[in-house]
Design goal:
There is one protein chain. The protein is α+β, with helices and mostly antiparallel strands. It is built from 14 helices and 13 strands. Helix 2 (about 105-120) crosses helix 3 and helix 6 (about 240-255) runs parallel beside helix 7 (about 270-275). The two termini are about 30 Å apart. The structure holds alpha-D-galactopyranose (GLA). The site of alpha-D-galactopyranose (GLA) has 12 residues, from helix 5.
Length: about 450
């Protein structure tokens, strides 16, 4: 599995309405026929939030919504991008001089991240050009990884144009790294599940080394995604990177407290591994070593014996250098407890006790509470939506993805699904103030999907 490459399916495009429509639009845009198509799915994270970049395992599944790209390699060195959604303007650049503008998270920059990742991996300075038409149906800025799906899809497009081969694991690692060109310090969950997902199963994604294991979800329950309609673009603000830095600083302070070589430590998981103790014990160490009152940069420098200049330039990311308050205790408590919940969730899925749906639901509820109170990555609308979902039959409900907006995921007993959907729709989306844009409203049960390439057999 670690060496497997993404599948290529020969299909009759004429028999697939979405591919056919894309082929026709491509033809009217570029005056030619696409050579092949690539798809990469978005994902919903069932449990394990904000812990991938701390080195801990997460439990996502791919959703059916995806990014689909029609591609034609061309002999010029020009990369021409178009999108079926008129909100995303055309873009063109020289394929030999890819520049990613971190100051504005514009759609084409995510595509360029994928291209650049592959280009750098093979040490290529000259890339052939291509015409690409992108079609995405993952709601943007909603915590379902529309941007990573675009990076992954563009990475696979570039690989295919070059006629090279890589395993899914290699592709996931390259795309996780290259998405950071946009300026966010994400972990590898989104790109990993986009490549490693398989139909019909969720996956436990473990890091260093990256691997994915099937997790069989309960057959008597359905996972339902609901969009709070609050948009959160993690590249447009510094919330996300502040959390990554708080975890990094907490790891360093914990390592120093335990007399480990703290300067090389970047992740909370490394501290646990070096101490060789359980997650529960790490929670106790956190309570001893850190205090709940927020830290200011001066105190952190005193604890580590470094200067403010060193803190800013050697530890913090460019967009967090001016931050004045770091909540290290709360962030570390969230990470270690959430990492333990992921393992408990997987164990319950394996053992399948009779009250499994209820037990899984409880873990999801605890995860939401921890995200809300300790990690502070929820928002009033997400909290309200989670309450509504629980009230109408969800055994558990939580925010999913980075948070501060976007979607919730709920575990709902299958027999309650129709009434659940109707009631949540009424209670959250049909609000009397009409404040929610209809195009953003989405409430749907998910089925796990997977990434693929298609060649036209017509
Ligand atoms: C974003 C990041 C992921 C992960 C989640 C939070 O989606 O890209 O790597 O950190 O947020 O769990």
């Amino acid at each position: 599995m670690a060496t497997e490459s993404p599948a290529t399916r020969r299909v009759q495009v004429a028999e697939h309405p979405r591919l056919l429509k894309l082929k026709e639009m491509f033809n009217s845009k570029f005056g030619s026929i696409p050579k092949f198509y690539v798809r990469a799915p978005g994902r919903v994270n069932i449990i394990g939030e904000h812990i991938d970049y701390c080195g801990y395992s997460v439990l996502p599944m791919a959703v059916e919504q995806d990014v689909l790209i029609a591609v034609e390699p061309v002999k010029t060195y020009t990369l021409q991008l178009a999108n079926t959604n008129p909100l995303y303007p055309d873009f063109s650049t020289s394929a030999n001089n890819i520049q990613i503008d971190k100051t504005k998270p514009l759609w084409h920059n995510y595509f360029l991240c994928g291209v650049k990742g592959i280009q750098e991996h093979f040490g290529l300075s000259n890339l052939t050009g291509m015409n690409c038409l992108v079609d995405g149906n993952i709601p943007p800025s909603s915590g379902l990884s529309s941007s990573s799906a675009l990076v992954c899809c563009a990475g696979l497009v570039t690989l295919t144009v070059l006629g090279r081969n890589l395993s899914k694991v290699e592709l996931a690692e390259i795309c996780a790294k290259s998405e950071r060109y946009i300026g966010t310090e994400g972990g590898g969950m989104d790109q990993s599940i986009s490549f490693l997902a398989e139909e019909g199963t969720a996956k436990l994604i473990e890091f260093s080394p990256l691997r994915a294991t099937d997790v069989k979800l309960p057959s008597g329950a359905v996972f339902v995604i609901a969009n709070s309609c609050v948009e959160m673009n993690k590249a447009a603000t510094s919330h996300f990177n502040i959390r990554v830095m708080e975890c990094r600083l907490a790891a360093k302070l914990l390592a120093k407290y335990k007399s480990l070589q703290w300067d090389k430590v970047l992740r909370l998981e490394e501290v646990q591994a070096k101490l060789g103790i359980s997650l529960e014990e790490m929670l106790l160490v956190t309570e001893d070593a850190l205090h709940p009152e927020p830290y200011n940069p001066e105190e952190i420098c005193r604890c580590l014996g470094i200067s403010l200049e060193e803190l800013r330039t050697q530890i913090l990311s460019p967009n967090t250098q001016e931050v004045l308050i770091f909540k290290l205790y709360q962030r570390a408590k969230h990470v270690y407890s959430e990492a333990a919940r992921v393992l408990q969730f997987k164990k319950i899925c394996e053992e399948a006790p009779e009250d499994m749906v209820q037990l899984l639901g409880e873990l999801m509820n605890q995860s939401h509470m921890s995200c809300r109170d300790m990690y502070e990555c929820s928002c009033p609308e997400l909290d309200q939506l989670v309450d509504i979902c629980r009230k109408f039959g969800a055994q558990g409900s939580r925010l999913t993805g980075a948070g501060w907006g976007g979607c919730t995921v709920s575990i709902v007993p299958a027999d309650k699904l129709p009434s659940f959907l109707a009631n949540v729709h009424k209670a959250y989306y049909q609000r009397s103030d009409g404040s929610l844009a209809p195009e953003k409203q989405s409430l749907f049960a998910t089925k796990p999907g997977a990434s693929e390439r298609y060649e036209d057999n017509t």
